[in-house]
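Suppose a colleague, Dr. K., hands you the sequence of a protein chain of 113 amino acids and asks what its three-dimensional shape might be. Before reaching for any lab equipment, you can write down a predicted structure in token form. Begin with the sequence itself:
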Amino acid sequence: MEVERQLGFDPRDREHEKLGYDVESRDPAYRQTSFIEVKGRVSTASTITVTKNEILYSLNKPDDFILAIAEFLDSDTHRVHYVRRPFQREPDFGVTSVNYDFAELIQRSGSPS
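The predicted structure, expressed as tokens, is then:
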């Protein structure tokens, strides 16, 4: 939410509504809305777990969905990465969540700007 505010956007916390994303962020200049799923991990983590609902939402709104990763470098420092179009395909019918390789997602990410 802090990063989105710094970018000049108007973020709203939607995490508890279980919509498939955590933050709805509106760009007042262009009247565009982004849907952001936030995952926090220590930099030594091997995977990030994403729910089927999060993946499906991202596939339904591919241009507007962002996977935001807060990478905790130590107890006082973190870095935020944005992965656009993070998922390529729908999970199988019985799948409830999927583990993705943390390093690969970080490599595909960019800065929030």
